[in-house]
Amino acid sequence: MDIELDTGRCIGSAMCTRHAPEVFTQDDEGVVELLPGGAARSGDPLVREAAEACPVRAITLDAG
What is the DSSP secondary structure assignment for residue 35, as one 8-state letter? Predict the structure, then answer.
């Protein structure tokens, strides 16, 4: 599964980092970023929770 980030849509709510702090971080402006190795954890249920919790749907999961 691939993690896709729409950084232009991100509003910096930090729901992603609360749900999956081992996968997501935020840059200096609060925009979502994947941590190194984060993509390898795409099957983690917490990643799905983070995507569902994002209020603007800036994170999507693609079965590839």
Answer: P
Q: Look at the pTM and tell me if it is higher than 0.90.
A: yes
Phi, psi (rounded to 5 degrees) for 31: -85, 140
Length of the chain: 64
Query: Can you tell me the distance from the alpha carbon of 7 to that of 25, in angstroms, rounded to the nearest whole number?
Result: 12
Tell me which amino acid residue 50 is: A
User: Residue 15: is it exposed, middle or buried by C-beta count within 10 angstroms (0-12/13-18/19+)?
Assistant: buried
Give the pLDDT band (50/70/90) at residue 53: very high
Q: Are 32 and 11 in contact (CB under 8 A)?
A: no
